């Protein structure tokens, strides 16, 4: 059984790598796409989906590979993760995400500390974040209930798809949202939009907990 320190560090390191991939691939995409937004988004999408599969495979046996406060909170609400551990996970995810953004900046020789100027607001984008998070949590909880070994691939494929079918490009993660506000690059979000995005994500998470509990009823309590 991994220690609490190992579990917390796995959440920190995994989220750091996730954000390094999201922001780093966005920077690279913007450099190489020649102004073609669709190509840039595709080049940002594929590495994000791919790294999620890898990270969940390697860190899943240690911490569960949440990398997302909405996921940790959902498992705590379901009684499958103690709230104090969920709080630790969330702190590690937020700080790890910020570290990952800074690592991307350093790799591309950009200023370490910056704020995004990319405005992401409006009812459509907020609704999209609620849908994106609802779908992500439903994917995770459904796989956990019926096909646990499929979680890494299902999550990677879901995020790859949701980048394109949601108006917000599917942040679906409060830690990712906070971290991306600290990068004035392709993947950024202006700080003014962060709280609204997180609120929409939490609504989507709550809906997924309710719906998953109805669809995949547990007959026994978790150990």
Automatic annotation (TrEMBL):
Listed A to Z, the keywords are: Membrane, Transmembrane, Transmembrane helix, Transport
Where in the cell? Membrane
The record's listing under Pfam families reads: MIP (PF00230)
Q: Which organism is it from?
A: Afipia broomeae ATCC 49717
How is this protein named in the record?
MIP family channel protein
Which Gene3D superfamilies is this protein grouped with?
A: Glycerol uptake facilitator protein
A GO molecular function for this record?
channel activity
What top-level branch of life does the organism fall under? Bacteria
Q: Where is the signal peptide?
A: none
